[in-house]
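Researcher: Please generate the 3D structure of the following complex. Treat every line as part of one assembly.
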Amino acid sequence: MPRLSADARHLVAFTLNGRPVKGLASPRILLSDFLRHEIGATGTHVGCEHGVCGACTIEVDGMLTRACLTLAVQVDGSTLRTVEGLAPAPDRLSILQAAFRRHHALQCGFCTAGILMSLDAFLRETPEPDEAQVRDLLSGHLCRCTGYTPIVRAALEAAADLRKTTRETAHA
Amino acid sequence: MKPASFGYVRADSLDEALGVLGNEGAEARVLAGGQSFMAMLNMRLARPRVIIDIMRVPALAELAQRKDELVVGAGVRQARLLAMPGLERTLPLVAQALPFTGHVQTRSRGTVCGSIAHADPSAELPLCLVALKGHVHLRAAKSRRKVAAAEFFTGMMATAKADDEMIEAVSFPVANGEGTAFREIARRHGDFAIVACAALVSDHGIRLAVGGVADTAVARDWPHLEGTALDDALNAFAYELDARDDVHASARYRRELVRRIGRSTIEEAARCRA
Amino acid sequence: MLDMPRDTADGWVGRAIERVEDAALLTGRGRYLDDLGVKPGTLHMAILRSPHPHADIIAIDTSTAQALPGVAAVLTGADIARLTTSLVVGVKAPVQCWPMAVERVRFVGEPVALVVAEDRYVAEDALDLIEVSYRSRHAVVDPLAALDEGAPLLHEGFPRNLASDRSFRYGDPEGAFARADRRVAISILYPRNSCTPIETYGLFAEYDPHEDAYDVLANFQGPFSIHAVIARALKVPGNRLRLRTPRDSGGSFGIKQGIFPYIVLGAVAARVAGAPVKWIEDRLEHLSASVCATNRATTLAAAVTADGRITALDFDQVEDCGAHLRAPEPATLYRMHGNLTGAYDIRNLAVRNRVVVTNKCPTGLNRGFGGPQVYFALERLMQRIGVELGLDPLEVIRRNLIPATAFPYRTAPGALLDSGDYRATLEAGLAAGRLDDLMARRDAARAEGRLYGIGFAAVVEPSVSNMGYIATVLTAEERRKAGPKNGAQATATIAIDPVGSVSVHVASVPQGQGHRTVLSQVVADVFGLTPADIKVNAEMDTAKDAWSIASGNYASRFAAAVAGAARLAADKLAGRLARVAAAQLNVPVDEIVFAGGKLCARDNRANALAFSRVAALSHWSPGQLPDGTAATIRETVFWTPPELTAADDEDHINSSLCHGFIFDYCGLEIDRDTGAVRIDRYVTAHDCGTILHPGMVDGQIRGGFAHALGAALLEEYAYGADGSFLTGTFADYLVPTAMEVPEPVIVHTQTPSPFTPLGAKGVGEGNCMSTPVCLANAVADALGVAEVRLPLAPSVIAALIHGAEAPAPAGARALAAPHAGGAKGEKLMRGAGKAHVRAAPEAIWSMLLDPQTLDSIIPGAHGVTRVSDTEFRADVTLGIGPVKGRYKAQVALSDLDPPNAVTLGGRVDGNLGFGGGSGRITLTPDGTGGTDLSYTYEAFVGGKVASVGGRLLDGAAKVIIGQFFAALARKAGGGGAATPGLFARLFARLLARLAALLGGRAP
Ligand SMILES: Cc1cc2nc3c(=O)[nH]c(=O)nc-3n(C[C@H](O)[C@H](O)[C@H](O)COP(=O)(O)OP(=O)(O)OC[C@H]3O[C@@H](n4cnc5c(N)ncnc54)[C@H](O)[C@@H]3O)c2cc1C
Ligand code: FES
Ligand code: FES
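Model: Done. Output below.
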């Protein structure tokens, strides 16, 4: 049973977007701060630090997770995915990201990383969502720029595109 | 907005967790899904000396039907319960109410027992536990007890749990042919309920539980009332709950919702039984 | 490869191409302020904030905080006052305005001290160790009450809390009212709200003691007139304050103008700490103390002919700017001055403008900036004119619109409306949005007894502010003394490098509006290149860039002014490049065209030179430039429209350059049981001149619509009557989510502006002006009521529908019905109750005076000390569930009338806030040896507890106090167990409520 003292810094190691990473954190360090300032993965944003805005949403061991409501020491040994891990290659966009760009589903882009993470997980589990389901999912995020409509459209179009590619791979 | 400092224990077994809890008492707090507790740490409203992470204790992951109860272990996340096959038959009320608890992104982490331990008077899961007459299974290092929901919730965020105890599981009696319905009125979807109503209609009569109004969820049982008799019963109940004003709604509005939404929830439950 | 479309025959402007910004933002490669690496050794700042709305600071003890390991500096208001000068106040008055409270706090959240430490966690630890003692004063939150005789005074230099009082007359309003068939009037209260960008404020500051110079990087948005304000406060010339902005900003909507007091704090902190300092505002700080829109009380009357023609308006506006009149306020009030007659042809106007200060957060820029407040009054009035005259409200709008033939149209107060065909836009909107269908839906709903309403709003959306409009707050005489102010300098620089590739630099500070994309389109068209060939840099650096006071991103000035300036700069360079090419291609200059990456002869496209070759010539071989042709390396254009003149002696002011037009209408239904509003259809028709990028224009409209919908239905910065701040988290300040925002039907017409280089006008703010009132008009129509207040909370709407409440049944518990404040200075909660005790009054009396008893009823007390016979002090730990805090408690007995009556007062103070109250207890013998005990009380709470968890406070007080007396009764009646004391319990309950709120039902 690991017991970590309050004031010392402890080794925290996990897999981030397929690569092992590690750093030091005292127990109170929030995962959002650890990712951004210790690991240098600044794509995950912080907008409220009380779990409401959704900007910091990432995936931990397959679960959508508010990084601001998680301690860095909690994810020792876990597998994390963040927005930096969504694109298939550094100079390409994923199907979802490309749909966001086509539909102008972002303006300032500050809420976007969290929304992409939610949709990425959601579309894997719900390949044929309707608009109501997408809106229900998005209700866990605040966006102040877009009025949400373009995000909903991008999500629905990405779902359709993803279905097409899975069908194509299935047929290949 | 950063937490004050604390020590961290990741328990591998229930005994370990209970041992730390027994030694540290009120200075230790259990961390489950963190969906309520972490915000309090961040705002420095809570300043425990040590927190005990129970999410890697295998024994707490139980989600199983035992006789006529569904037992939900302290490690079971809300999303897992919601995704349980057949939930709409086993616990139709919970299946209806749980989608109102936060969002996909908070249910994925938040636990069922954490919500019960938290004892928010407007939370859906405590309301369901009270409505269904469920139980809370408490464990300390050297003792265990099973407390009925109505006795467990003693006030706003106050429960019958002692400092050295933790919730091992909660159990919900499984559905037995009664009609159930759930309705919630909030400012936004997934928001803090101004009023939430859970109704059960069975051969024995009507049971209505109301959350968001008094300091805990409160239930009333009536025979099969109709028409003005039901109106009168709801009106008396509305006043008894002693509603209050806040930024989002007036006391009067809350009473009005108990009368109107309470009624429509009961009617829906009755239709659902028929 | 990014799939940017390449090469095209048509121009790029006007097409919804994909944004160059997006790939980085979608892949986590943004460069927002907090993403930028810090210099090694950078320290972190945290700010202690006032829990009180109004109090004197008696003492601040920072010694324990200073001693904490890792802490580099602790500064208080006295230090700030020593090292800086007061910020500029928006009007001439003997008033100071500090970025940190000096001697007195005036709103909840006002900075009181700051800590600089090795990291933010430690800095916050140190905040906990600062001890401040306050003496609280009465607060005033209502702008009209603030004007009352005897109201609490915020600043001695603003007698009666009045910062400015000006009256204006245009035409002959008195005559028009005297001659009018009807006078229709309306009074409205516009609430406080804010567009709350998801990224909060952030800054890095550094100080060079040898040069006495500051270098600040902040997500400030402009206007850069504020640069002068900051430099002045820091006591350095402008060239000793380098102010930079990062590439990406997480939204602003005006709000990030309000970071400037914190820039002063951060800069001073860096100076004192001797190291670079970083500060990231947290959400609680943002909600309580960043900046927000003004709330306003307006009375507006119209002189109307029998057929609905308005001949005069009479505005009486009382603007509430919060605790300090910070620059550029009272700009919110004057931004719309030239547009007070809206979209209507009204020649006579009377205006009285008063600006007041109250114990609330200071105000500043916020999307819509003054428009929502004005149009809420004006368009509610249009609806009332329809109702009162028995006319269709739509017909009233039609009859008063400025006719298309009248443009450019000079309004009575002086705005020059550039262009438009309001009637055509209105009719286009009606047709495309199918008003007739909505009418039919309303009829059908009403036939079924449902509550359905239709609302309209027609507004003129001003953009590109005249930097001189704010001077209208001064009299003509004062203006003459102050010197002329006018114009709206826009700048743009285009540079060509040695390989002939093109860069654009602008001082526009985008916050998500895609400036870089639009500029690449504009410049690509001039040079015959593709947007992908153009690299745009919109980061701002006052030490290196071309900028002016008007620089920045506000007043929707980008498309109209900045993009226009870029076009002019590109044109200039293109002219020179054409001359170079003409000489080499042997054709006249006017035969040269730019196309497909080449400069070629119009009639012989094969006679061509590569753009890059011509463009690079200035670098490699300047001697080959034709005679008289200047270098083509870099061109900076400053553009200011001549139409933006200073206010004249009669106070006519052309407050903005461009004027778009919006016509909105909607159908909505109200649930009879819950009062909830469901929008059936929302139609918004816009004429914003030439559209440069349709995708972005619609993006601005949808985004503005969502903000406006929030303001109309959900959002309010709520304050208790005692000045406590009640909406301190995103669980209380309710921002709409995807579930609440429907998709509006957007309709466009385009009347180019004759005053801007590209014909474009602003479009980003209009819906914030039109939508709140359009929804309110629909609610008024649905319910048939005259008074509608924002936000349209279901609870408030339900009260209008539900009529008298069913009485409590006999035998039900009596209700003390506490009410939440009202009159000024009144505490938050009041109530009364009774209890019966099985002991004589004398016995109870001695218990109340017995320290032992009091000791035993204050739980968690560490060392109760008795200050006098009737005063006690204790340190107490209070908590429920996980929420725990340490407090200093004081309990005092007063007005003793043994054994009949006593007043019991108490107070607790701690990091989570403060609370307390007092109760008058009366003891009456019941004749059988017992006592009838009755009490009245008032109680209050403030600070963090009230801000982040204020709901149910009233009930908590009532119940706890009741429990206290019940406990007293038990104890007197022989019960021995210590019962939690009045204040302890009260506070614990509030904490519990708070905790419940936070963890509980966040959105
Ligand atoms: C944005 C947002 C919206 C939300 N909306 C809602 C909503 O609409 N309705 C609703 O009901 N809730 C809502 N919540 C709260 C959410 O449901 C929480 O998950 C739940 O209240 C607590 O469960 P948890 O597992 O996260 O517990 P934690 O947050 O980890 O713990 C909560 C408290 O319970 C204690 N605790 C937890 N588990 C145990 C145990 N086994 N034994 C003893 N003590 C324990 C902890 O010490 C702590 O005091 C929302 C949260 C967020 C962030
Ligand atoms: S920052 Fe985590 S939810 Fe807002
Ligand atoms: S794009 Fe700016 S908050 Fe969503």
